[in-house]
Amino acid sequence: MQTAIGEAQWKASSTKDTEALATLIASWAKPGTLLALDGDLGAGKTTFSQFFAKAIGVQGIVNSPTFTIIKEYEGAEMPFYHMDVYRVSLEEADELGLDEYFYGSGVTIVEWASLIEELLPEERLELYLEHTGGEERVIRLKGIGEAYAGWCQSLNDREVGKQHG
């Protein structure tokens, strides 16, 4: 049986547009949701993560877990797990017990996810953030699995999505 795959694109001319996308995706999130973020340095991965965390009810400051690798936050209805695997080898990541997060009761965002692709669940939403000048970004989304493919289709169907891409 073939895995469903969907794709969408979101153009963000400001951080408000990035926040709109993060808030929308957060409204669809449920326990076990995995967002795999990639993109150039400074493309907005942590900014996206902060907006997402805010949208699911995380109180306080969410900052990059670059040196701690994993940070856990309490959201309104579920925990938020924020990971940055930029400085971790695949072997080190494998020893962290990431499955407990990926298949747990919370929602997970992994920054630099492509570095540990082999360890990620098969079904996930991949976001690639590309800096296109000034505050502008293009965010390419790839939903792998029925639910995530459906999210991409919903983005493609939205009026807002049409305005952004």
Compressed to H and E, one letter per element, the order equals EHEHEEHHEEEHH
Strands, total number: 7
Estimated structural class: alpha/beta
Please indicate the percent range of residues in DSSP E strands (runs of 2 or more). 25-35%
Give the CA-based shape: globular
List segments where confidence is low: pLDDT < 50 over at least 5 consecutive residues: none
Quaternary structure: single chain
Rg (C-alpha, Å): 15 Å
Task: Sketch the major β-sheet.
Answer: 7 strands, mixed
Mean pLDDT: 92
Distance between the termini: 31 Å
Count of separate DSSP helical elements? 6
Which strands sit side by side, in order, in the main sheet? Answer: 1-7-6-2-5-4-3
Structure overview:
The protein is about 30% helix and about 30% strand. It has about 160 residues and is an alpha/beta fold. Strands 1-7-6-2-5-4-3 form a seven-stranded mixed β-sheet. Helix 1 packs across helix 2. It is globular, with a radius of gyration of 15 Å. The mean pLDDT is about 90.
In a few lines, what is going on in this structure?
With 165 residues, the chain is of the alpha/beta class.
Question: What descriptive keywords fit this protein?
Answer:
165 residues; alpha/beta; seven-stranded mixed beta sheet
List strands and helices in order, with pairings.
Elements: E1 5-12, H1 15-28, E2 34-39, H2 45-55, E3 70-74, E4 79-84, H3 90-94, H4 99-102, E5 107-111, E6 124-133, E7 136-144, H5 146-157, H6 159-164
